[in-house]
Specification:
Distance between the termini: 29 Å
Radius of gyration: 15 Å
Number of domains: 1
Oligomer: single chain
Number of strands: 5
Low-confidence stretches: 4-15
Mean pLDDT: 86
CATH superfamily: Transposase IS200-like
Number of helices: 4
Strand order of the largest sheet: 4-1-3-2-5
Length: 156
């Protein structure tokens, strides 16, 4: 059994869509990779652009905490406008980033998302995400990693 809290037994490809329950928590953990694991994502210009896009333009889903690694990103989000699927929303901000920061590289097709079931799960996954740069040998402690933040304060 894996220690990786992102791995789901028996699930090899992302399920399309997110089952949203009205009146219930609808947190989603989203992972998006760069094409061919190219290492262009963790840079200040990309972080500033993504933060701006998520805060002001791609608001059909609201981004809470996020972390950029050189070749992938993790974020928590929640739906704000149910007319937009998570897949459509991700495609929108990927396209917007490529127009805003032309030197940014390409993205892997699609994304992987997982709907969280309780705030304990959120805390566990956020801690695991924050430790990613440490496990990768990029920093000694999570607080040293500059490529993370929070866009919106979303309540459970």
């Amino acid at each position: 059994m894996s220690d990786d809290p992102f791995r789901e037994p028996g699930r090899r490809t992302p399920a399309p869509g997110v089952h949203v329950t009205l009146g219930g928590p609808n947190w989603v953990l989203l992972n998006v990779c760069t094409k061919n694991s190219e290492r262009w994502l963790a840079q200040s210009a990309v972080q500033r652009a993504l933060h701006e896009i998520w805060e002001h333009h791609a608001t059909a889903w609201l981004v809470s905490d996020y972390l950029l690694m050189p070749d992938h990103l993790h974020l928590f989000c929640a739906p704000r406008d149910l007319k937009f699927t998570i897949e459509r929303w991700v495609a929108f901000w990927k396209d917007r980033l490529s127009k805003t920061v032309p030197e940014a590289g390409a993205w892997q097709r699609g994304s992987f998302h997982h709907r969280l079931r309780d705030d304990e799960s959120y805390a566990q996954k956020w801690q695991y995400m924050r430790e990613n740069p440490v496990r990768a040998g990029l920093v000694k402690v999570p607080e040293e990693w500059p490529f993370s933040g929070r866009v919106h304060e979303i309540r459970w």
